[in-house]
Specification:
By secondary structure, the chain is of the alpha/beta class. It contains six helices and seven strands, in the order E-H-E-E-H-E-H-E-H-E-H-H-E. Strands 3-2-1-4-5-6-7 form a seven-stranded parallel β-sheet, with helices on both faces. Strand 5, helix 4 and strand 6 form a beta-alpha-beta unit. Helix 3 runs parallel beside helix 4. The longest helix has 22 residues. The protein starts with a strand and ends in a 12-residue tail after the last strand.
């Protein structure tokens, strides 16, 4: 049985990834500060804290694994005016996404089996922005760079890729207008990201890449009428 760790496994996307992997026969553990969905093994962990990550791996007890999904991070991209953003708030956002991916990756590298995979969760906000989202955009952009750097360092034993989701939501939380603006006709779902994780975990000739999942939004020219 293949083994996977999914950080942020209690959230919408993380829970979907855990469920999809488990349905394909994977042994999955969620690392998160919140409780995972029923049926998923969970280890409570703040991935941005070095001591918490070390303790979580002690609890885990695995000497080998096949997949790490660095999905954890503060979900709200808004940070307010940059001129008013505190260093503490800046670091909190970057630590939740970027430092967490570093600490988790550092911990799993000695445990990754031949042919294993790391998937970092970036965002289309690494390539485009709304106002007052600098910290989130910086964290996601750095994850893209971290991905290709790791791919070169860890290959050929381990492949490292990133996923850049666009708008992903519970279908009950969006409107018809939200769906209609997407070229594919709908907002993204957690299962879309989960399918991409399954693909990248098995794609033996893909490394150092960013797979954009946004329903075509980053290819759409948007002008006010």
């Amino acid at each position: 049985m293949k083994r996977a760790i999914v950080t942020g496994g209690a959230g919408l996307i993380g829970a979907g990834i855990c469920q999809a992997l488990a349905s394909e026969g994977w042994q999955v553990v969620s690392f998160d500060k919140k409780a995972a969905a029923p049926g998923t093994r969970q280890i409570l962990c703040d991935v941005g804290d070095e001591a918490s990550v070390a303790a979580a791996f002690e609890d885990l007890g695995w000497s080998e694994l096949d997949l790490l999904v660095n999905n954890a991070g503060i979900a709200d991209p808004a940070n307010g005016p940059l001129a008013e953003l505190s260093l503490e708030a800046w670091r909190r956002i970057l630590d939740s996404h970027l430092t967490g991916a570093f600490l988790m990756s550092r911990a799993v590298i000695p445990r990754l089996k031949e042919g294993a995979s790391v998937v970092n969760m970036a965002s289309t906000r690494a390539f485009m922005s709304e106002p007052e989202t600098e910290a989130y955009a910086a964290a996601k952009g750095a994850l893209v760079a971290l991905t290709h750097a790791m791919a070169i360092s860890l290959g050929p034993k381990v492949r490292v890729n990133a996923i850049a989701p666009g708008w992903v939501a519970d279908p009950d939380d969006v409107t018809a207008a939200d769906h209609e603006q997407h070229p594919v006709g709908r907002v993204g779902r957690a299962k879309d990201v989960a399918q991409a994780v399954l693909y990248l975990a098995a794609a033996e000739f893909v490394t150092g890449q960013v797979l954009t999942l946004d329903g075509g939004m980053t290819r759409k020219m948007i002008y006010a009428d």
